[in-house]
User: Fold Nucleoside hydrolase from Clathrospora elynae.
Amino acid sequence: MMAFMYRALDSFLVPHRVLKLALTVLPLSASVALDRRTEVRNLIVDTDLFSDIDDAAALLLACTLPETKLLAVNVNVNSTYSAIAASAITNHYGYPFVPIGLPRPYANTSFFDTYAYALGEYTSKIAYHWSGGSVPFFELDATWDPVELYRKTLAESQNGSVTIASIGFSASLSGLLNTTADAYSILDGYGLVAEKVKELVIMGGGYPSGHEFNFWGQNASHTAHVVNTWPDSVPMTFLGTEVGEAVSTGARLTVSGPENDPVKAGYQWYVGYNNTRASWDPLTVAYAVEGLGDWFEYGNKNGYNYVYPNGSNTWMDGDSKTNQHYLKLKVSNETVAMELDNLLLRGARMHANYISR
Assistant:
């Protein structure tokens, strides 16, 4: 997730977000209290994998949660390392052919923590040391234009079957809405979304109001376009910065995860051994795949999210819309953190021998 230091305007300091492991460690056999589904959840992840490790954890879950089919990954930053790292991660966890979108023009940029000089770069390292999948190291011609990848993937899917987890910026989704008929579908962007998308789940904003980086950090007009004009027939659910900040995970993966695991390595490079990070993006993917379960409840009954031109947002009350919601934790943040760590460890161990290192 992009730009760790800007999650909320009043919450810039890194130290309170990088916490030593202090949770009770239960065995992986402990129950994970999410919905038990029999239908397959078709998923597209739209990620700003670059300057925060929680995007990598979200991809781990997208690949390893039961009854999930990862259809595509759109990277919404233009770093070549981000796309190659996304391919490496999905390849490691069993998706060697999943297509990766990368915005043009792209550049060989990497993250450097100029705010606190505390967090480490990881995408280029994962890209190189775990090279594989649909976009091997610097075979960038294999990446897709993100908007074209959206149109192709949605057009080829069953009606009402695709969940989109947006865990970064909104440029590609905005571009999708602006599209017209093409070789993939006679429908324009709004029509294609209305026909094919089951739900859009967004990590962004603060609730009931806020000013969070995912909404304003790249281009606030894209966010406003997506959130304010999304087809009314397609549900939108939001996980705000306050929810992700309350749940710290990842330390157990660095301690107990398989030695050949790319996300374990990413956490070690980013925050160090036995340190945690806030869980904005893995929580968003967990909800996108599993629903409310025992972790979440809705913070509202009716109303809708409104995004202003500067990227700030406010929840508007009213009965005109009933299919937009923002999430709250239903159980303690410690319980969710423990169970989310279980999911990360389980997914990593499932694929411990997928790539020999």
Q: What stands out?
A: Confidence is low (pLDDT under 50) at residues 1-33. The chain is about 35% helix and 15% strand.
